[in-house]
Design brief:
The chain is α+β, with helices and mostly antiparallel strands and about 100 residues long. The protein has 2 helices and 3 strands, in the order H-E-E-E-H. Strand 2 and strand 3 form a beta hairpin. The termini are far apart.
Length: about 100
């Protein structure tokens, strides 16, 4: 369920201050953050955020299509390494022989 419209989007204050400071100075440095819960606002467009995924920081360049989404959506926390390889190889070789 989305957040109430009267409250507006949630953005951590410290993150918003960092972005505003960079916008005023015209700088394009990477902003390191743990705030996966913050909503991407139009002021974030053009900046690169290093979002923590629990293990390391994932660099994310914010484009216009990302506005309204959360920062955490673009830094996955789990890595899918595939299903067991030996079973897949056996199954495909059996299908080819049939």
């Amino acid at each position: 369920m989305p957040r109430s419209l009267k409250k507006g989007p949630f953005i951590d204050d410290h993150l918003l201050k960092k972005v505003e400071a960079l916008n005023n100075s015209g700088d394009k440095r990477v902003i390191k953050t743990w705030s996966r819960r913050s909503t991407i606002s139009p002021e974030f467009v053009g900046h690169t955020f290093a979002v923590h995924n629990g293990n390391k920081f994932i660099p994310i360049y914010v484009s216009e299509n990302m506005v309204g989404h959360k920062l955490g959506e673009f830094a996955p926390t789990r890595t899918f390494r595939g299903h067991s390889g030996s079973k897949v190889v056996e199954r495909t070789s059996a299908l080819k022989g049939a």
